[in-house]
């Protein structure tokens, strides 16, 4: 019976070697796993730098908006000063014109009184 039974050595030497798909699956699985790990690390790195750089970008945006608002405020302040100066000048001119109206009214009254009086 032992002659009919094949020994492990005979089985190894007697059988032909074949490439099995186990290695291909293992290799494919390793490639997929490596891509997955790289993707996860890239995503984590992206999120980390986004969280670190987002406040800096927001700060730059706020500083630019601050500069724009200061320029608008300065322009509005200059416009207000010009409006106040114009208003003061107009008040002065109105006062002068009222004074002239008053003088002309007195002169007109004088001329009217001279025209009514008998000579």
UniProtKB/TrEMBL annotation:
Record key words, sorted: Coiled coil, Membrane, Transmembrane, Transmembrane helix
Chain segments annotated as coiled-coil in the UniProt record: 59-114
Keyword Membrane found: yes
Transmembrane segments annotated in the record for this chain: 29-49
Stated name of the protein: Uncharacterized protein
């Amino acid at each position: 019976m032992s002659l009919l039974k094949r020994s492990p050595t005979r089985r190894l030497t007697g059988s032909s070697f074949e490439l099995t798909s186990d290695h291909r699956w293992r290799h494919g699985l390793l490639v997929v796993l490596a891509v997955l790990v790289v993707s996860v690390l890239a995503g984590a790195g992206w999120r980390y730098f986004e969280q670190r750089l987002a406040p800096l970008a927001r700060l730059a945006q706020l500083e630019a908006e601050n500069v724009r608002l200061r320029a608008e405020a300065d322009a509005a302040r200059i416009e207000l000063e010009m409006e106040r100066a114009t208003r003061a000048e107009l008040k002065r001119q109105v006062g002068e014109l009222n004074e002239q109206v008053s003088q002309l009214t007195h002169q007109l009254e004088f001329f009217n009184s001279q025209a009514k009086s008998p000579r």
